[in-house]
Amino acid sequence: MSGKPILHYCDARGRMESIRWLLAAVGVEFEERLLQTKDDLTKLRKSGTLLFQQVPMVEIDGMKMVQTRAILSYIAGKYNLYGKDLKERVLIDMYVEAIMDVNDLFITHEILLGDERKQQFATIVDKVTNRYFPVFEKVLKDHGQDFLVGNQLSRADVQLLEVILMVEEGKPDILAKFPLLQSFKARISNIPTIKKFLQPGSQRKQPIPEKNIDQVMKIFS
């Protein structure tokens, strides 16, 4: 039996992508058991391994873990991405919760079509430009370090980079007014493990083409 974590999800970003990012950032290789059809999900549910009958599910350290935030917290704690003390941890949690607000918008955006998809992306751009990115720009300025919290990489850094790159896919100049976030993006992107994950052929997922959305939705319908 492989010692690698096993990730159960479909071939899409969704709620699994941040988990892929954290594992990649700490250099942990993982396997994926991709759900191709609704029957695949049904079999997984009937096996009794899905505590709340839903994915993502990650097999790691003898556990079959569900609930995205719980999985991310476990990985962050296990691989030293969660700060050095309780005060750093609560800052990381605050930043991550804001980042995941944006990520939740992207999860919806990924399965929309046509004008609805464009409208959702416009909402994302408005919120990151006026609410979220100004805060992170100020955090970097006030903190004066290479990272958002403390002086080492945390899950907040990894998850912020993930969101920045997703927004840039639709609006490449989104960081034009945020010079510190530009530097942050370049710095975190060049961490060797993350740089590797950003290369073509990695397990990082691309946006679902509109023509494939129905196929993905049928798995969960």
UniProtKB/TrEMBL annotation:
Transmembrane segments: none annotated. Keywords: Transferase. SUPFAM superfamilies: GST C-terminal domain-like, Thioredoxin-like. Residues 3-83 form the GST N-terminal domain. Signal peptide: none annotated. Residues 85-208 form the GST C-terminal domain. Belongs to the GST superfamily. Alpha family. This is glutathione transferase.
